[in-house]
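Record format v2
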Amino acid sequence: MTSYACCPTDISRTPSRVFIVLRLFLGAVFIYASYDKILHPQAFAQAVYNYRILPDALVNLTALVLPWLELILGLCLAAGFWLPGATMISTGLLMIFIGSLAFNRMRGLDISCGCFATQNVEGPADLWTVVRDLIFLAVSIYLTLVVFFFRSGQKQGGNCP
Amino acid sequence: MNRLFSISVQQSLRQIPALIALAVIIALGVNHWRSDGIPLVGDWSMEARFSDAAGESLIIELAQARRLFEEDGGVLFVDARPQSEYAQEHISGALSLPWQDADRYLAETAGRLESRKTIVAYCDGEDCDLSHELALFLKDMGFENVRVLVNGLTVWREAGLPIETGN
């Protein structure tokens, strides 16, 4: 007997191909995003500090936990595990990322100082970053809506209510 | 559909704290055991941010930088910002040494740098880290007396000290 035979919510359809592809895509994005940050905590802490949003005391803690949260989220999304929680966190994180980027653009934080990128600081890279994150957010919202309203046959990790 | 929604909400209310807790536990555990872990609460004061590898502060006060500038020719200001911003405005007599291309520019300007007793790196804005990065780079290259004038261009201009434009 499969795990979803006990779940009243999971007996309807098989998930659509679009849903699976986008779920794998967003999972891969989060896993990829976490990799470099986990390897270089000090450099990532500097990046978090440069956003000038968090109080100093929370910078390192955020820089330590965020990459692991991204990795775990990415794995959940890729594996189709704990999707209600994973899609909610993913949508929330992307909203925070976009909000932070937009906030710093609006208050005119000195982008040319190289605060965001250490290589190519001139050019519209930061606008592209916002657009890119908006695309990820759209994917994440789609996945969240499907999971909360039209979910079908994804794994429940054996934790059926 | 309503039933699915309420079940999903209940599941997410359990899963969100569990996922965050898992991330916190793994992050703190890994940070504790790895050799290049960072302190949980970092020191982001200005002195700590603008220090060299040994933890010595690189900051030079405006008054001291001004005295060096006015009294002897032993100081050279280096502008760590991109060349285009240097061309718009820079401290009089400063050398353009964009951190992005520091290797290339250093080859061309090493002679001028070597003849000075003190090198003062600057950029613009209190959060700008380019001058600090450049100072660390110059120290690595063997220049000993390298300092950073924090928020250099702005404090220099506001003190009414000489500014130049062009290359």
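The radius of gyration of chain A is 18 Å.
Chain A has one domain: 14-149.
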